[in-house]
TrEMBL record:
InterPro entries: cNMP-bd_dom (IPR000595), cNMP-bd_dom_sf (IPR018490), Env_Response_Regulators (IPR050397), HTH_CRP (IPR012318), RmlC-like_jellyroll (IPR014710), WH-like_DNA-bd_sf (IPR036388), WH_DNA-bd_sf (IPR036390). Keywords: Activator, DNA-binding, Transcription, Transcription regulation. It comes from Mesobacillus selenatarsenatis (strain DSM 18680 / JCM 14380 / FERM P-15431 / SF-1). This is Transcriptional regulator, Crp/Fnr family. Residues 149-222 form the HTH crp-type domain. PROSITE patterns: CNMP_BINDING_3, HTH_CRP_2. GO terms for molecular function: DNA binding; DNA-binding transcription factor activity. GO terms for cellular component: cytosol.
Length: 229
């Protein structure tokens, strides 16, 4: 990956978008491009937290495992996103696994060197806090979904959320750009694969969602939203 590509990709990340070329220079200097093949891990839960990743192309699944080995998917990240978001302000270990879902090109920034840049450019810290604030709001919304809504409603809310985070506009409403299995849906909200399967089949019968010829979900966002309200 050329320096110009690294610069361009970092400029797509929200916290860097408004920086001038001169302000970007020290960040580009410490950035390290790296290619990851499908099924590799960028890091494992419990590894020393010393780097932050920016996705140039590809997809990465972030998930946690408990003591019994059960998987809880936190998110599926795509091009232009960074992770872990708390990396710049957290010491210790990575709080989750980062598994590569398809061949992925990433830009890696060592936290220790980036912290020096944050000191030199305080406005970067402010932008970083704004991004973290958005993530906190999202996590609060997910917690409310768990507390205030039944499983059927949680599955619908998950599909609506994925339209925003892993979807693109289509004729039917939205097309999910990642292949998700019922087990993966279940692992995102802490329910069983069977429950998700029944709900998905029910929503298909109501023509709220379908699969295209390549196995991607097509979701009628408006009808699905109306199902909740």
């Amino acid at each position: 990956m050329h320096i110009s590509q690294i610069r361009q990709q970092l400029k797509e990340v929200p916290i860097f978008k408004e920086l001038s070329a001169d302000e970007m220079d020290p960040i580009v200097e410490i950035a390290q491009p790296r290619f990851f093949k499908n099924k590799m891990y960028a890091f494992m839960q419990g590894d020393p937290l010393d780097r932050v990743f920016f996705i140039y192309s590809g997809k990465v699944k972030i998930y946690k495992t408990d003591s019994s080995g059960r998987e809880q998917i936190v998110s599926v990240l795509e091009s232009g996103e960074m992770f872990p978001h708390a990396g710049f302000f957290r010491k210790g270990q990575y709080p989750a696994h980062a598994e590569i879902m398809e061949d992925t090109q990433m830009i890696i920034v060592p936290i220790s060197k980036f912290e020096e840049i944050l000191v030199a450019y305080p406005e970067l810290s402010i932008k970083l806090f704004r991004v973290l604030g958005e993530k906190i709001v999202d996590l609060q919304a997910r917690l409310e979904e768990q507390i205030l809504h039944n499983t059927y409603e949680q599955i619908i809310m998950l599909l609506l959320r994925l339209c925003k985070t892993n979807g693109e506009k289509s004729e039917q409403g939205f097309k999910l750009t990642t292949h998700f299995t019922n087990k993966e849906f279940a692992n995102m909200i802490g329910t069983s694969r069977e429950t998700v399967s029944r709900t998905i089949n029910h929503l298909k019968k109501k023509d709220y969602l379908s699969l295209d010829s390549d196995g991607y979900y097509l979701i009628d966002h408006e009808k699905l939203h109306q199902e909740l309200f």
